[in-house]
Design brief:
Elements lengths: L1 E2 L2 E2 L14 H4 L1 H14 L18 H10 L14 H9 L25
Antiparallel strand pairs: 1-2
């Protein structure tokens, strides 16, 4: 979390209940379910005008700039979703949370298929 010119690391408290299921245990789901939803009271991420998304290729410098320019009060940067997590979610016939599957470079002319 970037706030007031400093980066902070966030983690679940040791006594916090651990989520069950692969999707609920992803960092992006923990942020959404434990912090953003309770504060912003919005289950519809895409429609919430108080939340912006910055693509991974723009990096943390862009997050710092947005906060420093007072366009946003704070920013969060998450570890990228691993291929293992993506495959585990897919194998469980689950759906990844919004904005959790940002990949660079974008495929422009090819089709990527994961055989099952």
């Amino acid at each position: 979390m970037y706030l007031d010119g400093r980066w902070y690391g966030l983690r679940l408290r040791d006594d916090a209940a651990r989520p069950e299921g692969i999707v609920a245990s992803l960092d992006v789901s923990l942020l959404q379910d434990r912090l953003l939803d309770p504060i912003l009271v919005s289950k519809t991420f895409a429609l919430n005008k108080r939340i912006d998304f910055v693509g991974g290729i723009r990096g943390t410098a862009e997050l710092e700039r947005l906060v420093s320019d007072a366009k946003q009060p704070l920013a969060f940067s998450l570890f990228p979703t691993t291929i293992e997590d993506l495959l585990t979610v897919s194998d469980a016939n689950e759906i990844m949370p919004p904005k959790s599957t940002w990949f660079e470079p974008k495929l422009r002319r090819w089709l990527l298929v994961h055989t099952i």
